[in-house]
Amino acid sequence: MSTESSSAPNFIRNQIRDEIEAGRAGKIVTRFPPEPNGFLHIGHAKSICLNFGLAEQFGGDCHLRFDDTNPAKEEQAYIDAIKEDVHWLGFEWAGAVRFASDYFDRLYAWAQHLIREGKAYVDDLSADEIREYRGTLTEPGRPSPYRERAPEESLDLLERMRIGEFAEGEKVLRAKIDMASPNINLRDPILYRIRHAHHHQTGDAWKIYPSYDFTHGQSDALEGITHSICTLEFEDHRPLYEWFLDNLPVPARPRQIEFARLNLNYTLTSKRKLKLLVDEGIVDGWDDPRLPTISGMRRRGYTPASIRKFCEMIGVTRADGGLVDIAMLYHAIRADLEDNAPRAMCVLKPLKVVLTNVPEDHEEVYEVPGHPARDDLGVRQIPLTRELYIDQDDFMEEPPKKFFRLAPGKEVRLRNAYVIRCDEVIKGAGGEISELRCSVDFDTLGKNPEGRKVKGVIHWVSAAHGVPMEVRLYDNLFQVEQPDKDKDADFLDHLNPESLVVCQAIGEPSLARVTPESRFQFERVGYFCADRHAVAEGRLVFNRTVGLKDSWAKIQKKG
RNA sequence: UGGGGUAUAGCCAAGCGGUAAGGCAGCGGUUUUUGGUAUCGCCAUGCGCAGGUUCGAAUCCUGCUACCCCAGCCA
């Protein structure tokens, strides 16, 4: 599986390879440690591919561990969704799903250990006071008045915190490290805070919860994680990560390695902001096809392989501040679907065409391949009748020079069928084009017409047999490359009003019986995916995953 | 003006002292009953800038500059 991800080298892979070659590494164990406070997005996919990919390449294991130390923000629903997303992406975690909360007892005992060693203390300062005592980036902090509290007292207080004797915010447990450290993370970081919250895994057993810093490294050590890979913003936490490993009787010595998180233009990868879009109803849930969530991309029509391919393309480095062009993502999915998606014809904006030299009751059926290069994708039946629909974009009353499609007096090839000529344009009362009257050259089926070249080919659907369907044209959710670039502005101001355009389309008959999530190339238009929700309910709805490359649009833009 | 990081083409990214991979985007040709695909070609005398070491530097040294992260009882 995911053999395509086995070729691209990166600094982490090189490092592990070197360790193995030097005999300094045994079995590799990595982990993907999401917090269940939202849905996974494309940035997580990068981490998933890295962690699971590494384990796979070196014959090791990758654990799935929920970093569930903040019950106020976490939910079982997110846990379920995350598990499904990881599986859907094509990865299998080793052993059972793990939770940081599995280690709460151990962590508590270790907190007591630190207190006894004089390396931790219960602090009565308020949150505001702690901030004040912490100092600033340029000024050292000052010790809390409670810093030298006797271990016995701290032990007692911590136990009473645990069983709920104190209100939230009344006390915290802090490590005693260095209030003057230039690294703020070492200025007596908080180990436990009081939270009278129900926890999705541990219920009401705890009234205190450990902080990320006090949890992560120890959890890694308990699981025998060898390489703890995280993003660059945790770099400053590494000394703290190591401080705990140094000062606690942990069973193993994991190493933290940081890499740069993914930034994709025209998209947001902030869980907080994605949640806001969902909560405000600006998008249709966490799996809205415009969202860069794994489930949104799935619903949009991305394949797991295309996402893995994309993650391989962008690489893994420590260079931050970069911005990956979303064109790379589009390339990855087009490449997959070009090879694997069956073809179909679908008219997005129907324009009626009457073939005047075809009798009313005439009907002929063509058998055409499901894919130009994949016999295994079968064939489909395409009926032609006197009345049919073509796309409005494929006709122009006053065409520019390089317009190869239909125009008054001009000829065009109906894909898989005849060459037709437009003889007459019928207009409605408002002057809008309501119908085209065309004639068929019956000597052009499967061959070129005599004595002239017809360059254009357009798709079409029989009016008598076409199936009405809803087609949702998705585009970037934002109109600017970095919607959250300006910290003082509202990213919602950059929403693309045309991120979703709904069409009442007409598709070829074979499209009438599709299964949820089946993907097609609508020829000359783009790649589409049968909406997993709507189709399951019996409605014919297709989501545009990505358009085909459009060199005509480029020519037009150039003038 | 504290600490920690990062700079290679429009974008992503290899490279680790021997003379700048690859991909995306773009441009041009060929093929084509998808203006798609495929295919061929073009696209960094130069690696943030300035010095230095060396026969030789993107790779080593020195000094600058720019950008990113950190002052949650979030992760």
UniProtKB/TrEMBL annotation:
L-glutamine binds at D67, Y212. PROSITE patterns: AA_TRNA_LIGASE_I (PS00178). It catalyses: tRNA(Gln) + L-glutamine + ATP = L-glutaminyl-tRNA(Gln) + AMP + diphosphate. ATP binds at E35, P36, N37, H41, I42, G43, H44, A45, K46, S47, T231, R261, L262. Transmembrane segments: none annotated. Coiled coil: none annotated. Residues 341-441 form the Glutamyl/glutaminyl-tRNA synthetase class Ib anti-codon binding domain. Keywords: Aminoacyl-tRNA synthetase, ATP-binding, Cytoplasm, Ligase, Nucleotide-binding, Protein biosynthesis. It is found in: Cytoplasm. One of its GO terms (molecular function) is glutamine-tRNA ligase activity. A motif ('HIGH' region) lies at residues 34-44. Its EC number is 6.1.1.18. Residues 27-321 form the Glutamyl/glutaminyl-tRNA synthetase class Ib catalytic domain. Residues 457-531 form the tRNA synthetases class I (E and Q) anti-codon binding domain. GO terms for cellular component: cytosol. GO terms for biological process: glutaminyl-tRNA aminoacylation; glutamyl-tRNA aminoacylation. A motif ('KMSKS' region) lies at residues 268-272. Belongs to the class-I aminoacyl-tRNA synthetase family. NCBIfam families: glnS (TIGR00440), PRK14703.1 (NF011291). HAMAP family: Gln_tRNA_synth. Monomer. This is Glutamine--tRNA ligase.
